[in-house]
Automatic annotation (TrEMBL):
Keywords carried by this UniProt record: Amino-acid biosynthesis, Aminotransferase, Cytoplasm, Pyridoxal phosphate, Transferase
Cofactors (names): pyridoxal 5'-phosphate
Gene Ontology biological process terms in this record: amino acid biosynthetic process
Subcellular compartments: Cytoplasm
Subunit annotation: Homodimer.
Family note: Belongs to the class-III pyridoxal-phosphate-dependent aminotransferase family.
EC number: 2.6.1.17
A Pfam entry, by short name: Aminotran_1_2
Organism in which the protein naturally occurs: Streptomyces nanshensis
Protein name (Swiss-Prot/TrEMBL): Probable N-succinyldiaminopimelate aminotransferase DapC
């Protein structure tokens, strides 16, 4: 064999990504398909969003709007609608972005998060993220060459939710900390950070000169309390990259239309990375999402109330089956503690659950660096039709009774 024919002996996957296998969602969804189980693992709705929004996408396709490369920052109609959305829901808190310079359309929130990290993080910078964290965060921090510094959300008996330990957060900041990557409402725990917690995060960012990147994709799915954008707190506007997406708000998670709002300087930085990732995406869907954002308040209220009822239905079923059930004031997810069932490993439990009772769930341990902190917790998605949730509840009860 000549030197030219030799296969390189180095591992194919580079060191930055070597620790990341297949995402847990792909693994568990494949398990659901293989076993015919009800999939409460991955957070996607089993009913599409509003008919008029789907029709708006069809119209855009037919009218030839967005079938060729849209403008890099996003189509003007959508940027205007995103700016109007921020003003409509958060204008009284002082948010009023300029659609020309302070809005960037992305391929979902996922691309926005990755682009923000690639743009703002130098190799060696530390990035603080709340664990358990959304699974793309760790990989995105790694791709940017950053070091992730997890701060653990801990179960709080008084509120029945997971809460942020502010002392632990303060202690996590070092001279190398570049930014805090914050997700509220929080996936997977369902926690919504309070005004007091966000005030403390904001004060810390200002005091230590940190940037913030906020993932607010569940901003309209808050059942108790309120969603407050971190960018609206004193001193935060000029240091916060605010990220959201149409996927969860309009139940079209396959369209992948997301956005960034921030100062022109921050948007410009994120755009520098984003333009070489996808450049642009989802042309016709951008027009449809522009229409969706302008839906009346009754749409947003209706979505929230439907999901609240679904949350209550599943939470009740899980409690009756013997799970410890945390409150979920926000998101698509309820987190459970399996120790009352005599179980200790969420991973073993979730691998066995499809065979045992025909339900798929996700062990939240995989979203932790401190794996022991997440071992007994299992996440169930309730963004499914009530009948599906009721069926799942019956199955789960059978599994618990059967030991
Ligand atoms: C679903 C989800 C995303 C991904 O949003 P896309 O717009 O589909 O890319 C990002 N962050 C969190 C917390 C999510 O749950």
């Amino acid at each position: 064999m000549t030197a030219d024919q030799r296969v390189p002996e180095r591992p194919l996957l580079n060191r930055r990504l070597a620790e990341f296998g297949t995402t847990i969602f792909a693994e568990m969804s494949a398990l659901a398909v293989r076993t015919g189980a009800i999939n409460l693992g991955q957070g996607f709705p089993d009913t599409d969003g509003p008919e008029e929004v789907r029709e708006a996408a069809v119209r855009a396709l037919r009218d030839g709007r967005g079938n060729q490369y849209p403008p890099g920052p996003g189509v003007p109609e959508l940027r205007t609608a995103i700016a109007a959305h921020q003003r409509r829901w958060y204008g009284q808190l002082g948010l009023d972005p300029d659609p020309e310079t302070e809005v960037l359309v992305t391929a979902g929130a996922t691309e926005a998060i990755t682009a923000a990290l690639l743009a703002l993080v130098e190799p060696g910078d530390e990035v603080i993220a709340l664990e358990p964290y959304y699974d793309s965060y760790a990989a995105a921090i790694a791709m940017a060459g950053g070091t992730r510094v997890p701060v653990t959300l801990r179960p709080d008996a008084a509120s029945g939710t997971f809460r942020l330990d502010l002392d632990e957060l303060r202690d996590a900041v070092t001279d190398r900390t570049r930014l805090i990557l914050l997700n509220t409402p929080h996936n997977p725990t369902g926690t919504v950070l309070s005004r007091e917690e966000l005030t403390a995060v904001a004060e810390l960012c200002v005091e230590r000169g940190l940037l913030a990147v906020t993932d607010e994709v569940y901003e309209h799915l808050v059942y108790e309390g309120e969603h407050l954008p971190l960018a609206s707190f004193p001193g935060m506007r000029e240091r916060t990259v605010t990220i959201s997406s149409s996927g969860k708000t309009f139940s079209f998670t396959g369209w992948k239309v997301g956005w960034v709002t921030a100062t022109p300087e921050l948007v410009g930085a994120v755009r520098s990375a984003k333009q070489f990732m996808t450049y642009v995406s989802a042309g016709p869907f951008q027009y449809a999402v522009a229409e969706a954002l302008a839906l009346p308040d009754s749409y947003y209220t209706g979505l929230r109330e439907d999901l609240r009822a679904q949350r209550d239905l599943l939470s009740r079923g899980l409690a009756e089956a013997g799970f410890g059930v945390f409150q979920a004031p926000g998101t698509y997810f309820v987190t459970t503690d399996i120790r009352p069932l005599g179980e200790t490993s969420g991973i073993d439990f979730c691998l066995a659950l499809p065979e045992r009772c025909g339900v798929v769930a996700v062990p939240t341990q995989v979203f932790y660096d401190h794996q022991e902190a997440g071992a007994p917790f299992v996440r169930f998605a309730f963004c499914k039709r009530p009948q599906v949730l009721a069926d799942a509840a019956v199955r789960l009860k059978g599994a618990a009774a059967g030991g």
